[in-house]
């Protein structure tokens, strides 16, 4: 299944863009190699609102959100996960509006740190975040004229969740599925086995459009997710091939597999290879003397 990315996107910084009935998108002016043109926040509803992923601590974006809200009541703020480009502004917006903050839970890693290991993604984690409501998997939150269902989708982050707008076919897919690029899966924050299982979970649904945390909408999401699965399996085969050819370190594998990728992303690519290797070692397809790590030596299984 071919995977075709959509890189055309107008962020319209500071403006609320109506992208579907009762849904507005505002994009934070925080472009980077990891955030594309910036983080998308969404406002759902008409008379009483929900805000999804209010974003980082950014004064201009906060003021843009308040302008779009226009004095209307905000009952709930939904946070997909606790990376700093998505969650920090939730606390300030909650104080301003009185809205309840809803999320799967506080930030945590997908697995415990191993002896001597440090988490390279700690700087990107919102460790202060605490939701008012910890959403159970498949929990439905109802507002005035809207209802959002939380679906746990660990992989990119251990506490990642997506939100389905009941009765519309719209799903807010955050960083789990995006049209512009594949999601970063980087241990110990994320886990490849979790990510693949979460893709399968969404493939069982019949949503018709995904609104992601970065970039434009995902059209035909079932087809796109099948492409994502095939892409990840291709990467897994590439890792196995490099090991069979004699590569023993992640650095060697990244230089070969990601030779055409922006060098600024090679650090993230190394963590993605580690995510594949953790899964492959657990399945017995690859071996290493100790636990899989960024500096370990790897051998065929």
Largest sheet, spatial ordering of strands: 1-2-3-4-5-6-7
User: How is the biggest beta sheet arranged?
Assistant: 7 strands, mixed
The helix tally amounts to: 6
What value does the Rg take, in angstroms? 19 Å
Q: Strand-residue fraction?
A: 15-25%
- SSE pattern, N- to C-terminal: EEEEHEHEEEEEEHEEHHHEE
End-to-end Cα distance, whole Å, is 28 Å
Strand segment count = 15
Model description:
The radius of gyration is 19 Å and the shape is elongated. It has helices spanning 59-69, 89-97, 192-203, 221-244, 250-257, 266-282, and strands at 17-20, 23-27, 40-44, 49-52, 74-78, 100-103, 133-134, 140-142, 147-152, 161-165, 170-174, 209-212, 218-219, 286-288, 298-300. It starts with 16 loop residues before the first strand and ends with a strand. The mean pLDDT is 95. It is built from 6 helices and 15 strands. With 301 residues, the chain is of the alpha/beta class. Helix 3 runs antiparallel to helix 4 and helix 4 (221-244) packs across helix 5 (250-257). The strands form 3 sheets. The chain has a 7-stranded mixed sheet with strand order 1-2-3-4-5-6-7, with helices on one face. It has a 6-stranded mixed sheet with strand order 8-9-10-11-12-13, with no helix packed on it. The protein is 27% helix and 20% strand.
